[in-house]
Amino acid sequence: MKGLPEERAITFAHYIIEHNTTVRATAKEFHISKSTVHKDVTERLKRINPLVYAQVKQVLDHNKSERHIRGGIATREKYARMKAHG
Predict the structure, then answer these.
(1) Contact 74, 80 (CB under 8 A)
(2) Burial class of 23 by CB neighbour count within 10 A (0 to 12, 13 to 18, 19+)
(3) Which one of 39, 74, 80, 81 has the largest count of C-beta atoms within 10 Å of its C-beta?
(4) One pLDDT digit (tens) per residue for the chain, 86 residues
(5) How far is CA 69 from CA 60, 81, 86, in A?
(6) Phi/psi-derived region of residue 49, left when phi > 0, alpha when psi is between -120 and 50, beta in every other case
(7) 8: Cβ–Cβ under 8 A, 6 or more apart, which residues?
(8) Are 46 and 52 in contact (CB under 8 A)?
(9) 27: which residues sit within 8 A by CB, 6+ positions away?
(10) Cβ-Cβ contacts under 8 Å for 71 (sequence gap 6 or more)
(11) What DSSP state is assigned to residue 43?
(12) Contact in structure between 37 and 27 (CB atoms under 8 Å)
């Protein structure tokens, strides 16, 4: 997704809020790097729209707090697949 960084930041922010998604999933959806999404929704968004930034930060903080749970689930599934195929 090309375009002005400010417009991109708003687009990413709305996507994150509406879909309650992660930076990684947003980057994948828009075919852009995670670092670009992260920079847009943290640094740029904070400057151009502090209210939307606060909403995005809330979603990202929630996702971060659950990260260890998703990692554990992924690991359990990985070993279950290995056991089934090996």
Answers:
(1) no
(2) buried
(3) 39
(4) 667 889 999 999 999 999 999 999 999 999 999 999 999 999 999 999 999 999 999 999 998 888 788 888 889 999 999 989 87
(5) 15, 19, 26
(6) beta
(7) 1, 36, 40
(8) no
(9) 33, 34, 36, 37
(10) none
(11) I
(12) yes
Structural domain total, the chain: 1
Tokens of 83: 């056991």
Gap between the Cα atoms of 79 and 56, Å rounded: 34
Domain extent for 55? 5-85
Whole-structure pTM value: 0.78
The rounded distance, in Å, linking the Cα atoms of 74 and 61 is 20
